[in-house]
Specification:
Length: 200
């Protein structure tokens, strides 16, 4: 219900919408991260899937409902200051879940200005190497950074969620490092094109 309220409050517009993913492989959603409204848009774009969000452990407490959900339902809470322990936490989770569907924000934090930050590849490469195969779906959010700013309340700027690409990964035929590099290159390209369209 919370996701539905947020989704319709922001008037999210999915550019180039897609059908539900039908696959026996784990599904991994990759996108930039601008606000909590990204999460609602992703969850409601794939109503047939339960996603687990890789998030910093600080979010596991102090935020009503969000912290509880991350701790008890769909969070993989990691210590961003300790990369070794963070990777171990993710791998331990993957060992327990048969077909985990994950959401990864490779910037590692929210962008307060809308600018796309550096994309960190280690987490995604580790996951792909461990799973062996997966379907990856990538998105770019272009307006969500404005939400949460008092100047934009009530919400009158509609969220834009741009579908970038869908990829199939198989460890036997693709190198995970180069595969992730291609995903990040596509994200950067669509991000730049989206914001250029807004400016022009």
């Amino acid at each position: 219900m919370c996701h539905l309220v947020l989704f319709f409050t922001t008037g999210c517009r999915v550019i180039r919408p897609r059908k539900d993913v039908q696959t026996s492989k784990p599904v991994i959603v990759i996108s930039n991260h601008q606000s909590a409204f990204d999460i609602s848009s992703i969850v409601l774009t794939f109503p047939n899937l339960r996603f687990y969000f890789i998030a910093k452990r600080e979010l596991g407490k102090g935020i009503p409902s969000v912290s509880l959900l991350l701790r008890e339902y769909n969070g993989i809470l990691i210590d961003r200051s300790n990369s070794f322990e963070a990777v171990k936490r993710i791998v331990d989770f993957l060992n327990l879940e048969k077909t985990p569907n994950l959401v990864i924000f490779p910037e590692g934090t929210r962008s307060r200005s809308g600018a796309l930050g550096p994309l960190k590849r280690r987490g995604l490469v580790t996951i792909l190497d461990h799973l062996g195969e997966a379907k990856i779906v990538s998105f770019i959010f272009s307006k969500n950074y404005r939400f949460g700013n008092p100047l934009f309340f009530p919400f009158f700027v509609k969220s834009e969620m741009v579908f970038v690409q869908e990829y199939d990964f198989s460890r036997g035929s693709l190198n995970s490092e180069s595969f992730v590099s291609q995903i990040f290159e596509d994200l950067n390209t669509v991000y730049l094109n989206t914001f250029n369209l807004k400016i022009n």
